[in-house]
Amino acid sequence: MSVKLLTKNDCPQCAQLKMFLKFGLSNKYESDIEIVNKEDNKDLFEKLTAEYGILTLPAFIGADEVLTRTQPTPVVAFLEKHVGKK
Fold first, then answer.
1. Contact yes or no for 80/86 (Cβ under 8 A)
2. InterPro entries per the record (predicted)?
3. For FRET with 20, which of 29, 35, 43, 68 sits at 20 to 30 Å CA-CA?
């Protein structure tokens, strides 16, 4: 099971979350997260934001659940739930 992470360029919160995933979690979930960047994949990005009603970034999508609170605790809980790694 994998999750999607919606991001865009010039987004301080997106950069902060990516740093946490890389260094705080040692890239443990790197192969489980599909990054959908607004500038790199505009069509999919717009489809997902419309489908899930996402208004703020960064945002995770797993199954039919959306997470926009990207502090470490909710991020880890979301990834453990949707990816299954601890």
1. yes
2. Thioredoxin-like_sf
3. 43
